[in-house]
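Incident log, support desk, overnight shift.

02:14 A customer reports that sequence design results differ from what the structure should imply. Their input is reproduced verbatim below. On-call engineer (initials T.W.) acknowledged and began investigating.
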């Protein structure tokens, strides 16, 4: 699936109030005028497995997010490669939530690559990462993140429960 931009927010795949299975797909999104998002979920519980997601920006004023989870989303991500690059900021996985619609993300056996932040968790969200590589910027936000078997771009394993 390829989206080449246009408008104020290009998203190659979007789900709202749904539980889709996104499997064995390559998702590429390149510059729009404000942001590029590979997969966007709103109040959804998708299963994303075997996906290769790439979001690239067109310069300093364009944000890029590989997978963007709006309030209330509960995705499970398995065996995925998520990359965000060339935007400012660029974020591998963004997950938000609030007290009425908290978010939860489970990530297994995946690679997340972004120079600004590999994961961003503003608000009420819990992110659990298992056996994955976090390549680039650190995790940021007020949400809770748990990591087990997670290593950085230099293959340095984080202590049990800690995130790089």
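02:41 Re-run completed on a clean worker. Output:
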């Amino acid at each position: 699936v390829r989206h080449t931009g246009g408008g104020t927010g290009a998203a190659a795949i979007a789900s709202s109030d749904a539980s889709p299975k996104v499997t064995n797909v390559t998702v590429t999104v390149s510059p729009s005028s404000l942001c590029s998002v590979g997969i966007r979920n709103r109040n959804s519980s998708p299963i994303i497995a075997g996906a290769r997601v790439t979001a690239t920006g067109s310069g300093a004023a364009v944000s890029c997010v590989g997978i963007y989870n709006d309030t209330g989303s509960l995705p499970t991500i398995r065996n995925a490669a998520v990359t965000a690059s060339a935007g400012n900021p660029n974020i591998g996985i963004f997950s938000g939530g609030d007290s009425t619609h908290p978010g939860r993300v489970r990530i297994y056996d995946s690679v997340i690559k972004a120079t600004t932040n590999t994961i961003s968790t503003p608000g009420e969200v819990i992110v659990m990462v298992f056996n994955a590589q976090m390549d680039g910027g650190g995790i940021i936000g007020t949400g809770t993140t748990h990591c087990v078997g997670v290593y950085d771009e230099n293959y340095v394993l984080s202590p049990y429960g800690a995130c790089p």
